[in-house]
UniProtKB/TrEMBL annotation, chain A:
InterPro entries with a match to the protein in the record: Luciferase-like_dom, Luciferase-like_sf, SsuD_RutA_monooxygenase
Origin: domain of life: Bacteria
Gene3D superfamilies assigned: Luciferase-like domain (3.20.20.30)
Presence of the UniProt keyword Oxidoreductase in the record: yes
Keywords per UniProt: Flavoprotein, FMN, Monooxygenase, Oxidoreductase
GO biological process, one term: alkanesulfonate catabolic process
Name used for this protein in its record: LLM class flavin-dependent oxidoreductase
Residue ranges annotated for the Luciferase-like domain, each copy included: 44-349
Pfam assignment, any one: Bac_luciferase
PANTHER family linked: ALKANESULFONATE MONOOXYGENASE, ALKANESULFONATE MONOOXYGENASE-RELATED
Alphabetized GO MF terms: alkanesulfonate monooxygenase activity
Keyword Flavoprotein: yes
UniProtKB/TrEMBL annotation, chain B:
Top-rank taxon, per record: Bacteria
Coiled coil regions in record: none
Protein name as it appears in the record: LLM class flavin-dependent oxidoreductase
Luciferase-like domain boundaries: 36-239
Keywords, comma-separated and alphabetical: Flavoprotein, FMN, Monooxygenase, Oxidoreductase
A GO biological process held by the record: alkanesulfonate catabolic process
Pfam families in alphabetical order: Bac_luciferase (PF00296)
GO MF assignments: alkanesulfonate monooxygenase activity
PANTHER family, sorted: ALKANESULFONATE MONOOXYGENASE, ALKANESULFONATE MONOOXYGENASE-RELATED
Record's keyword annotation contains Oxidoreductase: yes
Amino acid sequence: MSIDFYWRLPTHGCHASIRRGSYDRGDWSPLQPGNVAPGLTAQGEDDGYRYIDHLAEIAKAAELSGFIGGLIPSFPNTDDPWVISPLLARETKTFRFMIAFQPGFLDPVHAARISASLQRATGGRTVFNVITGGGGPSQLWWGDDFAHDDRYGRTTEFLDIFRGVWAGKPFDYDGRFYQVEGEQLSDLLSREEVPEIWFSGSSEAALQSAAKHADYYLSWLEPYDQLTDKFARVKERTAQLGGEQKCAIRVDLVARPTEEEAWRDIRIGFENVSDATRAQWRGQPTDSVGAARQSALKPTEAKRWDDLIVGKNLWGGFNLLRGGPALGIVGSYEQCAEQLDELIQRGADAFILAGTPHLEEAWRIGEEVLPLLGRTAATTQNLLEAAE
Amino acid sequence: MTLRFYWRLDPAAEPARGEASARPATGFVPRDVRTASLNRYDYYVQVARAAATTAFDGLFVAYRPESDDSQIVAAAIARTAPRLLLVPEFPATVGSAVYAAKEAVSFQRATHNRLGWALTGDGGEEDAARTAEFLHVARGVHGTRPFDHDGEYFSVKGGGFQAPLANVPFPPVYLSGDDEEALERSARLADVHLLPHAPLDALRGRAETLDRLALAAGRTVELGVIATITARETAEEVAAGQGIAGSYDAVANRLADLHAIGVGHVVLSATPSLEEAYRIGQFVLPRVRARIADLRAAA
Ligand SMILES: Cc1cc2nc3c(=O)[nH]c(=O)nc-3n(C[C@H](O)[C@H](O)[C@H](O)COP(=O)(O)O)c2cc1C
């Protein structure tokens, strides 16, 4: 069995250390000495490097250290994955660009064309994380006023058309949100493979749409039993449609030579978050079921870093240290590998991993953790049990 | 005013060049070691680098639904084609204006502000209305925060980019068309209006109309000409050439004349695209620049 491991390109700048919240890679913080991409020359001038140059290094580190590609997130104040991917297409070799995008923002026929073009530019290295948006002010910011379940309805129709025009003959569609007549990709474009579709969303509406279109159902890490239940529900739905659902997990790791060193970084990181910052972290109103499942972990109310230990090697405060979901894995290389092995036992078919700083941690996890997979004590134990 | 030169890459032209799927599968005697990773984009890059190394100022990429997408091509070549302004042509029907503006801003950030937008369309009423609203919203979220809009095609609430996305300029917008409606639209919306090449008198008339309309709209709009070009060392080699045609000297004089009537942008194309970019860049552009300098010195 082989498992696809993706890394992540941070599109909102990066921190030089998980211990500190300052975005000193990229230009999301003021340009000052020690900043990278852009940085300052010895004369104190902008050195001309741009954040894309740093993203290129992360992508290359990921492909060299054994990751199959990387997720490229999309939020109001990030750089855009549809631009980053073609920009980096020619200087990477095997790295797959997993583009996070909300179907509502592009015309579906146009989306199919640009996807096929990107497939041609990359030799088939395009992958999608289809997201459907978290509602609230940020949805209106994008210019989208659809309600939660309508957004998923639109996502389903979008993907119907996206695949439909790829099939090599004229395609008609009369949906609630889209109508097309006689559209198809040219022979040149339809020769390319339809990109693999990863799908995020935890609500009923999301699962319904996923069952029809997702190659991988993608979830943030959640407490393991809860996650196992969710995967079981998705797999059951897809089975009803006659398919077999693969599942994937997106999770951050703090992996260090020893468990003690890993928790020390978490403790220092936690202590560097001011109360004021913590209060701000409550986030915007959202209709996201997935986000509610994360915030149920309540990291904003913790007094001490270890209030947030929610299980062996599991810490629920990652969203205090950087934007994103709350739950992540903390431990020695061996322990991190054990956790991943356990998740594989529980039905994960693929992963998107990340760690801060993304460049150095791609190397570290690629070199120190990935090679331990399938060989840790947890796996051995499970294999023994299975054999009994 | 300077005269800016753009080469125009057409992703659908010369379809076999560099195209991996067009390689002979049988009956090709030389040992063929080209892998699939050597492909059409390597050719696009060559054309772009040809334009960059021969002192063009920019590269337009034509919108061809049957071939590679102009915006994907522009981004894929950006990091290997230095200096050039990259101007994909595309219609306002590609998707949300907010999303397009956000992509534009990322492109600007990554390329030291080397993006332009050439909005195309069928020129019909619906297309014109959509294009106008598309530009209004895209520029709105780029320049205003919070930005609200409730229109026919797009609606936004509390929109607008923050730093650092808001720190880069909006790409220059090129619109085209030959009739009065197109000129009127450009007067309101374009940074540059591109006219098809025509006799000097006709162009002069259009230029005056554009100036008048732009003045009425309280804006300035620069003028450009888009043309195919056929240039050879001697006039007799240009049998029935297309577009702006003639010897290197004659073509250069013609381009300098355009400049003299107020044209600031020239978008040129010829086939084969790579070889002709070198030819025009090496033999015609230096003559135009010298001629403009001479005229200026004389004046
Ligand atoms: C792994 C994962 C990655 C996501 N990435 C993004 C992203 O890049 N941009 C974004 O706006 N939302 C992202 N989302 C959130 C989704 O857009 C959506 O808000 C969420 O899945 C809510 O849907 P639900 O109500 O069905 O849970 C992501 C969600 C998951 C699970």
